[in-house]
Design a protein that fits this description.
The complex is a heterotetramer, with 2 copies of chain A (400 residues) and 2 copies of chain B (386 residues).
Chain A: H1 8-28, H2 31-39, H3 45-58, H4 76-89, H5 98-109, H6 112-123, E1 129-132, E2 149-152, E3 155-163, E4 173-179, E5 190-196, E6 202-208, E7 214-227, E8 231-232, H7 250-254, H8 256-272, E9 274-275, E10 278-279, H9 284-307, H10 311-315, H11 317-340, H12 367-376, H13 387-398
Parallel strand pairs in A: 1-4
Antiparallel strand pairs in A: 2-3, 3-7, 4-5, 5-8, 6-7, 9-10
Chain B: H1 12-28, H2 31-40, H3 46-54, H4 73-86, H5 92-106, H6 109-121, E1 126-129, E2 145-149, E3 152-163, E4 170-176, E5 187-193, E6 199-205, E7 211-222, E8 227-228, H7 235-270, E9 272-273, E10 276-277, H8 282-311, H9 316-342, H10 353-364, H11 370-385
Parallel strand pairs in B: 1-4
Antiparallel strand pairs in B: 2-3, 3-7, 4-5, 5-8, 6-7, 9-10
Helix pairs in contact in B: 1-4, 4-7, 5-6, 5-7, 7-8, 7-9, 7-10, 8-9, 9-10, 9-11
Classes of the chains: A alpha+beta (400), B alpha+beta (386).
Chain lengths: 400, 386, 400, 386
């Protein structure tokens, strides 16, 4: 009556594509760098830039970009294969703010001038973008943001603070949400500005994470002047454009590819680590937990593949589900890597994590990063839409 | 199975099957009607069974050469999903999946001709007696013995929790014809008339509103033509039946969780406490969201397992074991949550949600519970790595 | 500097008391009955009555009652020991509505006449009480109850319905909450009445449980007339008196004693049940789960003992905690007993559960009750204050 | 321990100790001050250590005959609880609990007189080197060797994650004097000067803001008077030190969860989102309620274990193992929840809640993690049944 669905032809094409990606990775990614990425060591900006240049040279920097802007024009399944292979291989994880969200926004709502000015430099890595969204008193409830800005001639003057800004200390541009009016509902009066990080009046306060490292920042904007030409969309109409930021990237944030790479690493560690006279992977309790993780990861990958290319679902309950559970799985895998360290989870020397450090570490090699990595990624269920927000989104879909 | 083979797409025919099943069951198999069928105590409703036959469902997975529809395990899964949501109690699993599919696979032409047309037409029912009082979930732990005698065999032993036994015309009985109690070799399958001399049944209802029985075989004589498949070689047949049985149970489990979520959402929308619908309480909303997540995860794993089994993927057995373990663990938890999220009404027999829990529990206790399935998952994973 | 707290003297006394209780149980509780209680078989009313008479003969029927009303005047620790021993021994579990809640209410707020009339008959088991609290549309939000009653001369006329009434089909009295006024906040206008179950106009609809058995009922009250002398407290002022019902019995509802008895039974089953060629208790996964249950149970017992006799804590966050977790533990133990049945969890013949049934059951003896018992007790996290309400109570205590 | 021995009551003196510790730490050990101490990198603050001495805490559990206060393991637990809430980083565990208590128990009069007054007065610090790079959590798996030589011994081997090593005056070092690598017999304890020739330290910070070091012993000569307790017979001493170390860690764990709950409640009361304080969101309220429950359960189990150990109950070892397992499992989960319930601020080093999580993780990785402790719990339970 019916047969197994006939997806043979496209699958074969995709396997060809997968081989192409693998060949690229083999040629461009040094095994030493890949090892450091898999182990969770920090990369410095030149290392990230080098990787983006390599991708750009191949035409693969803007994976989501349409060909007219220099993207590869991949199908959703090709993107899936690409991300999967990159994660498995240990390719550096770029800071995607510019490449994904800012680019999507500009393509949809930027002026021709803004597109011309920013898109090429985002694609080739000349510009690194950070985001000024959250504020000390506006987190999950982002629309309640207060950072005031007012018009003076051809400029906006911004006077406030933004927080949880990843890579602000590296970025040369910042995507900024400000409040230009306090009348009406909180969603109105929000304006989007593009801020050159060389503008006078910006102070960056590093925020040290639980892993002892610096990746987050608070921005203080002291009467910072931004030309009106750097506004995206109309004044006070920024919120509707935020859909390019919120929800859009839940599938990357879910990190199913990352899960798979972590799981492979956890398996390796569990095979190589002896505890109580046997490899950890032979410990029934550890083995059971790994089996459940593998099963749960499989479920998410099936769901991901079932909605791939369906942007309504990706922004809806399914996308929220993937973000919710994908980040939980990652966290549990990292927790198990830390457990595998035994007493060597206790030593903590963040200098080891830094790029270029060459000293001798304490205990097994993976112990140097396992616990800081675990601690750092507690954030994965908090940032990019917290687990609580994801549950809200799902419930909203169940009770429309 | 770690890449593109995880993409499961349904064919247009499969979507039609889903729609037809959902439409029929929604119309003809409401919860009140279902409860009346259970109360009647007759192993499903004869009228419904005729409908199933008419819709081609009784022959769905059977080979076209035997008069069936040649559907895949994935088709079977989709039908079972609809059965699960409706909590249909008809003995489809025992007659079609375990019984007829085994006859189709193992039987000779005469046996197939004798049995299958009747099954497809809804006249003949089968039961699959491969569990024994001491076997637990180990179907190859067979103590029932069949000794050759004249031109046939004589069977003696006990079979336990045989689904649909009392209403079956023929019982498929595993018996040891050689080898030690737990040896893989030396198990044979026999077609035994339910009314044959020496066959005694102790029938009872099951927690999930079906019928089953303890079956006692006391020197039951069968002819040579009762031997189904190769002498001593039934182990693989039994395992195949078990795998297809699991595919069916996984489909039902997904249907149960869909039903449990749907009735919870409905109840929360309509039930008011403290002046507001329950659906406006955030703590409950978040738990209903988790219920949705569990349902989706379960659906993904079970669908994948059915697809892999249908496609003969090398990882199919492990996928089935993983999904079965998941259903017993996360599925049980989800069904318990659905009960909890209803409050008092859920613990009555009059309301639907508790019956989803019952069915999920029964599904866990058939063909290996969570622990058994997880052991198998791990063992198969290790074998694949080696 | 400090020593282990000096509770030696009372502990010794309590051990004497424990021996006394054990002697009583040995003399009065038949092993066959005890086995049936432990296995979760239903008892019939004569069996319960017999047990109450035995307790009453010893002066131990009203464990919470003060001596002036015929109670034993036990300390909280004595009550704890008594309950513990009864549960371990498999003593029948009486329907405590009259003995606990109704008695406490009458002692606190009943007229002398009501006390004289009801208390002795509650104590000796002549009267069995049920409760008419919940209504089809008032569950967790009990104060929203609607069952209307109005005064006609010396009588109240009640016209409504009550649900989830345990043992209404056995009871000869019912404690009833009715609404005599709809003005003002919902907590006002509630009146407490005592209803003789022989009064005309009462219809009892049995509600069959998930275990196939009848213990719950719906009451339909069709212009039922109740003498004003059967009102407790003032008209419309019933809600404040409800504290004798709500919260008071969380510690019994937590059923720590029941947990301990279940755990002993589960251990026995796990030792005697073979699966995969070994006793279930040797299965690492099952054994781990049992270990966690034992540890969690231990925690609850320590908490229970730390608040015993402190009724503020018993009604507050600690009592809610015990109810919340105690019922979860029970449920998990019952689930594991059902699991231990293997395929024999599937057969279901509720007639076996009934008192007096003598047929042969299917599979191992414990399988006859394990799964129905599991299903029935899903209610333990719902009734007597649901887990959700318990969390509300705890949060209320954290944010006073 | 299944009955009345589960009732733990604190004496008036114990309540006074609790109050005094809480008062002092609240005043003198605020989170900002704590962070400054950690940043200074000197294994705790010298001024605080003097305060501890002055309050009698450094001699709290030591025998009165050695100048201590003769406090019980329960007293120690209560003090540790206060340390845990304040996240105090001073090397109390290594110096007093593992070091001095072992000297008091195993040392001869001369050794006790040489070491203990200095500890009690806050002048002398000790460290306990009994973990090795390959031992994992098995403290009796000793590869460091001590061979007799002249009137003394020569020690060679590696000790790992030795808490407080760099600031210690003396190291207690376990070494094998006889027997195979994992044999219980043949382990001896030695008092080694931290500055003795052949002792090399690689010091580092720990995830929870303390100091530890890898210790290398290369042909380190010690005299006969360095032998602590019986030759070959240190196994029981080490186990006793471990047990008392666990009591201390359990106290700290309870303090950590108290702190984590308190700061979560405080944060939810003050933080507004969507126009309301977080404490008004029911989903969050319910999870904070669960956090409270976990804290109370942890407190009960840990207090019971400390009490049982103090009273020498037969079930004490099992109670300790159970509580240790619980802290690693439920305690970790609770600390993670506290982090989650804060949102972004929790993942910064500037805010307190993440440090509770770090300490809970470190506690799990000292003296046996959840799995190791649960194995021991089960083994001891089985032994008690037999």
């Amino acid at each position: 009556m019916t047969a197994v669905p006939g997806t043979q032809q496209p699958l074969t094409d995709l396997e060809d594509f997968r081989r192409e990606v693998r060949a690229f990775l083999a040629a461009n990614l040094s095994p030493a760098l890949a090892e450091r990425v898999k182990a969770g060591f920090y990369l410095d900006k030149p290392e990230l830039d080098r990787w983006q240049r390599a991708l750009h040279a191949r035409g693969w920097a803007g994976t989501n970009w349409p060909p007219e802007h220099g993207g590869p024009g991949w199908t959703p399944m090709q993107k899936y294969v690409f991300e999967d292979e990159c994660a498995q291989a240990g390719a550096p994880i770029l800071i995607m703010m510019g490449l994904n969200q800012v680019a999507a926004l500009l393509m949809a709502a930027g002026t021709e001038d803004q597109k011309r000015r920013h898109l090429p430099r985002i694609l080739d890595g000349s510009d690194l973008w950070c985001q000024g969204l959250s504020e000390p008193n506006s987190g999950s409830d982002l629309a309640s943001l207060k950072c005031p800005a007012w018009r003076e001639g051809d400029e906006y003057v911004v006077d406030g603070s933004k927080i949880w800004t990843t890579a602000a200390h590296w970025a040369n541009w910042c995507f900024l949400l400000v409040r230009t009016s306090s009348d009406g509902p909180k969603q109105e009066g929000i304006t989007i500005l593009l801020l050159d990080m060389k503008t006078p009046g910006i102070t960056i306060r590093p925020i040290i994470g639980l892993d002892g490292m610096h990746s987050l920042n608070q921005l203080f904007l002291d009467k910072v002047r931004i030309p009106v030409s750097c506004r995206v969309g109309e004044e006070g109409r920024g919120w509707p454009l935020m859909k390019y930021f919120l929800g859009h990237e839940r599938i990357s944030a879910a990190g199913i590819w990352k899960c798979k790479a972590h799981f492979a690493r956890l398996t390796k560690i569990a095979r190589e680590t002896r505890r109580d006279g046997r490899p950890l992977i032979e410990n029934p309790r550890f083995r059971d937990r790994m089996a459940w993780l593998e099963i749960r990861m499989r479920a998410l990958e099936v769901i991901l593949l079932s909605i791939i290319g369906d942007s309504a679902k990706a922004k809806g309950a399914e996308g929220a589900l993937l973000k919710l559970r994908g980040t939980e799985l990652q966290q549990e895998m990292l927790a198990m890597m830390s457990e595998a360290c035994g007493p060597y989870a206790v030593p903590f020397h963040p200098e080891v994590l830094r790029s270029g450090w060459t000293g001798e570490h304490v205990g097994p090699e993976f112990a140097a990063t396992a616990t800081p990595f675990y601690l750092f990624w507690r954030k994965s269920t908090i940032s990019g839409g917290s687990s609580e927000i994801m549950r809200n989104v799902i419930a909203q879909n169940l009770y429309p | 199975m770690t890449g593109l083979d995880l993409r499961v797409e349904l064919s247009p025919e499969q979507r039609m099957l889903q729609d037809a099943a959902a439409r029929y069951l929604e119309k003809a198999y409401g919860f009140q009607e279902r409860q009346a069928i259970v109360a009647a105590g007759s192993d499903g409703d004869a009228g419904k069974w005729r409908d199933f036959a008419q819709m081609g469902w009784l022959g769905l997975p059977l080979p076209e050469s035997d008069g069936g529809n040649g559907g895949s395990a994935l088709d079977l899964f989709l039908l079972a999903q609809a059965f699960g949501k409706a909590l249909a109690v008809e003995p489809y699993l025992s007659t079609v999946v375990l019984g007829a599919m085994t006859v189709a696979a193992a039987g000779n032409a005469a046996q197939r001709a004798r049995i299958l047309p009747g099954v497809i037409a809804g006249r003949t029912r089968l039961a699959f007696g491969c569990t024994e009082p001491e076997s637990g979930y180990a179907l190859l732990d067979v103590q029932t013995r069949a000794r050759a005698s004249g031109d046939g065999f004589v069977l003696t032993g006990d079979k336990s929790v045989v689904l649909g036994a009392a209403s079956a015309d023929h019982l498929l009985i595993s018996a040891r014809t050689a080898g030690a109690r737990d040896s893989r070799l030396g198990i044979s399958l026999f077609l035994v008339d339910r009314t044959a001399p020496g066959v005694t049944l102790r029938p009872y209802g099951t927690i999930d509103g079906r019928r089953a029985a303890e079956v006692k075989l006391q020197e039951v004589r069968v002819g040579r033509d009762a031997l189904l498949g190769e002498l001593h070689g039934a182990a693989a047949r039994i395992e195949h039946a078990q795998a297809l049985g699991i595919v069916t149970l996984l489909g039902e489990a997904v249907g149960c969780l869909e039903g449990a979520l749907a009735c919870t959402v409905e109840y929360h929308r309509n039930r008011h406490q403290f002046g507001k619908p329950l659906s406006s309480f955030q703590a409950l909303r978040h738990r209903v969201a988790d219920l949705y997540v569990a349902k989706e995860e379960t659906r993904a794993l079970c669908l994948l397992a059915a697809h892999a089994h249908a496609a003969g993927e090398p990882g199919a057995a492990q996928a089935l074991a993983g999904a079965k373990a998941w259903v017993g663990q996360a599925g049980r938890h989800a069904a318990e949550e659905a009960v909890q999220l209803h409050g008092a009404i859920a613990i009555t027999d009059e309301y639907v949600v508790g019956h989803y829990l019952k069915r999920i529990i029964a599904i866990d206790r058939l063909f290996g519970d969570t622990g058994t399935a997880l052991d198998r998952y791990i063992e198969l994973g290790r074998a694949a790595d080696a």
